[in-house]
Amino acid sequence: MGVISDTLKKLGGKKLGKIEKKWVFDASSSISSSPIAAEITKGELGIAFGTQDGKIYMLGENAKIKWLYSIQEKIDEIQKMFLDEETAKSIYTTPAFADINKDSKKEVLFGCDIGKFYALSSSGKLLWDFKTDGGIRSSALVEDINKDNKPEIIFGSNDRNLYVLDAKGKLLWKFKADSGIESDPAILRAKKTQIIFGSNDGRIYSLNTKGKLLWQFKTKGKITAKPAVGDIYNNKKNYIVIGSADNSLYVLDENGRLEWLYETEGRICSKACLVDINNDKKLEIIFGSCDDNIYCLSCRGSKIWSYETDFWIVASPLVIDIDNDGKLEVIAGSYDSSVYVLDAEGIFLLDYMPGVSGVIQQPGHYNDLITVEPGGYIGKKLWQYKTEGMIVGSTFITNTKKQKEIIIGIKEGKLDNLAYRKD
Amino acid sequence: MVKELKKKQELKRIKVHINGFDEQLQGGIPEGFVTLVCGTAGTMKTSVAFNVLYNEALDGKTGLYVSLEQSSRSLLEHAEKMGYDLSKINLVVMSDISKLKSNIQDIKSSKSGSLLISDLGAIRKQIKETKIGPSGDWLNVIKNIIKRLKQEAKCDLFVLDSLSALYVLSSFDEPRTKLFYIFEFLRDVGLTTFLISEMPLDKRKYSDYEVEDYLADGIILLQHTEKFRKVIREISIVKMRATDCNTDVFTLEYKNKKFYALQGGKPPLV
Asked: Model ipTM?
């Protein structure tokens, strides 16, 4: 029976196996940041995430708490009145892992809504902190931008400044933007290295490594997404891909000139993934929108496929081979509480069948225009996994069997570990 | 459905304390509702809102009046001139944010109803020289006062004077979203709320962003009307959810220390 149903599935283009939960971790507070996973010390994996009550958890591969850091800030009575006590310590930044003190262990860097930026050791001890005058929602970028063989730490704050600190938490320089900065910064390597970030008034800024403004580009909505940078056309030039709350995804060249934009019907909050899904040596662009759709665009900005979920997509999608079949899957978490695993290439669906009829509408596929085109690609769902709440972020780990597992952060305080299992 | 209708009739209501007007509202505004009190300058928005809190304090309730621009001194002088006997209620003025705890204690220890006037204008001056400066989030200050007063002093009513001043003091980049959360916060806290909204002189809208009209449970409109070279004040209900209300326009008069809603110079026939 199993063999017959497997064969039928294969004939129908369905993949075998399923996505199932391996473990769940209850943080007992709303999870506000996307989780991150990496090797903290040699052979030792760590999964970190932040919560609304000001805690950073570091878990091991099997969801055991390695350490927990709780923000301890003394706030006087007057200051307290100006804060929303329930969310004042919220950690919205995805923690950054980086070996900033060359001890062969990765330190953890993050900011919080109270306006402080923290550097913790790999064992969760406070190394240093840095105070800004606004909430920090921009995750840190750790890069050696001045080629001194030491990493610099770059992040934005709602006090309108982009800060660049040295590895000991000392301010090297800051750049004042026209509004708060919640977007994560990214690096663009061109003739000159550029620091790219978005701001709350919709501007995309480019700075040189000394903090001088190179160019800026204005969109019509707040930018919270991290810029994605890549050689999308395979022409040895890097391009910036970034979404805005004006519902559009922008692609700019290294001089801040608009290459093209793609309009959706909802805000774009998540970082786009730039991946070659069809081996054409060019990068396709995969992102989610608050119009409930996951989009896959070609490097020229034409839609390859989209897939509609039941609510907003705020978390950045992952593009990995979850079932080890040599093909990529798109993993997207939605505010509708589900994790969608989609075929990265989509599926070609015929609209027109010569010799049979003019236009054939196939179940589940609706074209409002009668077309002579033979058909087109649509998003193809492989699996769907229902979690217990809105998905705020995701990451993945590679287990000892070289299989990839997904880690999902859920607003309602749960961290789920999902893995593919062959039936 | 029938059960739901019965429930509506059972709603507890807060009197507006305007003779002839509460009757048009099935006895008053449903408890926990958020109502806009809108009008152009000089239409007695502040007085009508103050009148509710004063009279409810006489009935033993606790109310919070947050004045963002008018000083507590000016407000109380005006109330005294109108004939309100402030000695009959437990009047507490908060002009120092660090004294909220003792202000709450004053309310808790009082046997009579209380009215806390939060003079945010004075607090703004106090804060100006501190590290928070004038740019702090004043919306959070108001929310924190409300939360503490509700939890610790069982506050029942809240007046914000005014929404327009709040828009200047707090960042409203995305007003529709922010206002939605403010209205939801007020409903969740469960205070019967009056938000004073300053209308433009051309009266083309009830509130600054217009979305407030839809978010509010009720709208009371106060206006000036010129008749035979005389300007008279008028009051009407634009909307009141869960209430079978009369939306006629009434003349608003204040005499013998009381507000009256009149039709043709007489209390309206009910």
From this structure: 0.77
